[in-house]
C-alpha cells in the first residue's frame, strides 16, 4: 500500500502539536486531525482566542503558534472514526467520510474525566468539572449562584481557582477525598524532586479558601430535583443547588487504541485505569501505531509535549529519516525533561485514588445512554458475566451513543468489586470502530 | 456415572452440555478457553431463520424452530426471541422468478413454511421498503433472538442441570488413555472422560487435528453494523435475493445490519477486524432497500469469528480417527437457530451412539469424494 | 448557573425562542449561558437531560440543529440565526413519514 502521508497525528493538544512540529522539522509530511475548531486540546482549549493568564496558557500559546507557522497540514472539525491495519485511517469532515494511508499513526487523544456516578447525576444541571472548565475557557462562562463542586483531584481545585479568579462565585466544594492515604507517602520523596507540582496544588486550595468558598468534607452526596437539579444532599444535609460539578480525576482516553487489534493494554493499579502498552518512544504493540500524552498514561500537559516530541523523533527513525543514534542524541534533553515532569505523578495518583464503587447504590444509573443501573450490572455478574463485554451484550451497558466512554471505567470497577477480584482480571469494553458515529449514508458513499 | 467433556463454551457447546446433563448418568464439563460466548455465539445477529436454508438443513431447522417456539420450556428464559418473520425480497422480476422456483423446490420436499408474496403484500409487511422491490419469499414464525441473553440462558440451564463450566481453560491435546477413556489436556491439567464433544467453532479443526483428523473447514469473519435507536419501522428480518444483506430492527429500535460481508480474520491472535471498504457495501445495500435509514448514525461495527465449511453446512458426527470424540462445528454463520436441536442431536449421539434427529447429511464423510 | 464574562453579539433560535449567543462559542455554552439546562429527553425513559462533558464524549447534549436530529450541541459552533430545538426521545425517520 502506498502512503498518502508520513505521519498522521490525531489530536491537536500539547502532545499532538509538539509532535507535529518536530516531525515536520525532520522532513516528514504530517497530517494533523482534531475534532475541535482549533488547536489546544482540552488543556489549552480556545488558546488562540483568549489572553494567556498563566504559565499553562503561555505554554499552549507557544505550541499553537509554532504549529501555525509550520508546514504541518491541519484539519480541524475532523473526527477520526477508524484505524485499519496497514495504516489506513478514516475520518469525517463536513459530513463526508474520508480516508488516507499513513506511514505511522500517532494518537494524542488525551484524557477523559473518570465518571463520578452519584444518585441523581443524570439530572440537567449536573455536569463535570472539566465541562465547566471548557465553558470558562471557550465561552467565558463563570459560575454564579448556587453552584457546587463535588469530588476530588487536582483539576477540581484548579478549576475552582480559575473560576474564582475570573470573578465567578461558588456556593461550596464537597470534598470526597480521604486525606493522605499511607500508600501515597512512599511516593513522596520522588515527588519532592519536582516540588512545583505539589506547591501549586496547595496554592490553588489556599486561593479558593481565601475567596471564602465553603469546603465540606463528606462521605455521601446525592443530587435531587424534578426534571432538573434543585438541591444536593450532603451527608443528610440539604443545600439549594442549580449546578453541580462532579470530578473524580482523569483517565487516559483509550477509545481508539482499544479498538485496534493487537494493541495491548495493561491495568495501571496506581492510576486505576487501563493504558496502552508503550515502549519508551510511544510505540504500541500494534505495528505502526504510536501514542503520546495523557492517552498513554496521565502525566499532564508538559509531559505530553515532551512525549510528543520523542514520538516524532521515533517516527522519523522508523521511516528512515534519521538513524537510531541521531534519534537518541536528539532525544536526550526531551527525555530528561519528561522524567522530571513525571516525578510527582505517582504521589499525586496515590493521593487521589478513585472513589470506591461500592459507594454507588444499586438504583443509581451508571450507563447514562442506556440507563443501566449499578444493580443491573451487579445482577449480570451473579448471572455469570465475568467481564465488561459479556455484561455489555447482556445488559446493553455501553451500547449507546457514547459507546462506553463515560460508563466504561465504572462498569469495569463495579464488575471487579462484585466478583471480588483484582480489576486487572476483568476485561475492559472492547471498543468498536467507528469510534464516533457516522451515518450509514456516509459509509455507503465509500462503496461508490 | 459417565463423564463427558464439551470443548467450547459457545452456544453449540452449551446446548450439547445442557441436553447431555439432563440425561441420567452423565457428568458433563464444559471447557472454554476464554469466556462463554466470546466469539460468534455472543456477537452474531441472532437470526432464528428457516427461510432459505440449504435443503439438507431444513429438517433439523424445523426441529429447532419447534424448540425456539417454546424456548422458555427448554432454558427457563425467552432468550429475547421475537417471531417477527423473515423476508427475502426480490428487487426485480428475475429474482422473483428465482424465489418462486425455490418455494416450489421446498414444497416438493413436503415443507410449507416458505411462501411467495406479491408487491402489495411486501409493502404491507415492510412499509419502509424501497419502491423497486417487486415481491418476496416469506417465512412467518421465524424471527430473531438476543444472542448473549441466549448464551447466558443456556449456560444457566446447563449449570442447573448439573454441568460444570470452566472458563479460561484452553485445550492443548486429546489422547486416549490406557484404560480406553479419552484424556483432554489443558494448560491447567488433564480431564478424563468417556466421551468428548468438539464444539470449538472456528478453532474446531485444530481440535480435530489433535485427534489426527483433517476436516476441510476454513474461517469467516462476518461484519455487522448497529445503528442508533430509530422509531419502530420494521418487524421482520429482511434480506435481498441477489445481494448479500441481513437487516433487522431490534426491540430497542436499533437496526442490525449484516449479511456476510467479510472482515479480516486472525484466528491465531483470536481477533478479527472490520474492513470499512467492504462494510461500505452493506451500508449501501441497506440504504438502497430502506432509504429511511440513510441518515441513521452507526453506533458500532464488529466481526465475529466462525468456522466455514466448503459447502456451508455443519459437520456433525463421530470422529473417524478417535472414536468417542464427536464433532459439532462449521455452522458457517447460520448455526444460531440450529443450536437447540443440534445440541440435542450431539447429546444423543454421545449418550446412545445414535439419534433420530435429522443430522445424517452433516457427516464429514461427504468430503471424501 | 453560569454567567457570561463577555457580552453576547449574535442571536440564535432555540425551540422557537430567540436567545443571545457569542460568536465562536458552541451551541451548548450558548444554551447554558441563557439558563437552558435541559437539552433533550432520552429515548429510553424519556427523562430530561443536559450536557455532562462538553467535550464531545458523553452524547448527552443531543439536540436538533437546522432540522438534523441527534446533533451534539457541544460540537456545534453557533452562527447568527442558527435554529435549534430539543431532541425529544428517539430521532424521527423523515423519509418514511413523508412517503
Task: Summarize, please.
Chain A has 448 residues and is of the alpha/beta class. Chain A has helices at residues 14-25, 55-68, 129-139, 154-165, 182-185, 188-191, 195-210, 301-318, 324-342, 345-351, 374-382, 388-395, 408-419, 440-445; strands at residues 5-10, 30-34, 73-76, 78-84, 88-93, 96-107, 111-113, 126-128, 141-143, 147-152, 172-175, 215-217, 221-224, 231-234, 237-240, 243-248, 250-252, 265-268, 273-276, 289-291, 365-367, 372-373, 438-439.
Proportion of beta-strand residues of chain A: 15-25%
Strand ordering within the main sheet of chain B: 8-2-1-12-21-20
Query: Please, what is the average pLDDT of chain A?
Result: 94
What's the CATH topology label of the largest domain in chain B?
A: FAD/NAD(P)-binding domain
Q: What is the second-level CATH architecture of the largest domain in chain B?
A: 3-Layer(bba) Sandwich
* Cα distance spanning the termini of chain B: 40 Å
Largest sheet of chain B: 6 strands, mixed
Work out the helicity level of chain A. 25-40%
Q: Return residue spans of chain A where pLDDT drops below 50 for at least 5 consecutive residues.
A: none
**CATH class value of the largest domain in chain A:** Alpha Beta
Q: Between the first and last Cα atoms of chain A, what is the distance in angstroms?
A: 20 Å
Domains of chain A (count): 3
Indicate the overall shape of chain A.
globular
Keywords for this entry:
heterotrimer, A: 448 residues, alpha/beta, FAD/NAD(P)-binding domain, Arc Repressor Mutant, subunit A, seven-stranded mixed β-sheet, five-stranded parallel β-sheet, 23% strand, C: 99 residues, mainly beta, Ubiquitin-like (UB roll), 12% helix, 32% strand, globular
Describe the structure.
- The complex is a heterotrimer of chains A (448), B (369) and C (99).
- Chain A has 14 helices and 23 strands.
- With 448 residues, chain A is α/β, with parallel strands linked by helices.
- Chain A folds into three domains: 5-112 and 251-322, FAD/NAD(P)-binding domain, CATH 3.50.50; 115-248, FAD/NAD(P)-binding domain (3-Layer(bba) Sandwich), CATH 3.50.50.60; 357-425, Orthogonal Bundle (Arc Repressor Mutant, subunit A), CATH 1.10.10.1100.
- Chain B starts with a strand and ends in a 17-residue tail after the last helix.
- The relative contact order of chain B is 0.20.
- The longest helix of chain B is centred in the N-terminal third of the chain and has 16 residues, at 93-108.
- Chain B is α/β, with parallel strands linked by helices and 369 residues long.
- Chain B is 28% helix and 28% strand.
- In chain B, a hairpin with a 6-residue loop joins strand 20 (315-318) and strand 21.
- In chain C, strands 2, 3, 4, 5, 6, 7 and 8 form a seven-stranded mixed sheet that branches.
- The interface between B and C is medium-sized, with 15 and 11 residues.
- Strand 9 of chain A pairs antiparallel with strand 1 (2-4) of chain C, so a sheet runs across the interface.
- Chain B: This is FAD-dependent oxidoreductase.
- Chain B: GO terms for molecular function: oxidoreductase activity.
- Chain B: Residues 4-349 form the FAD dependent oxidoreductase domain.
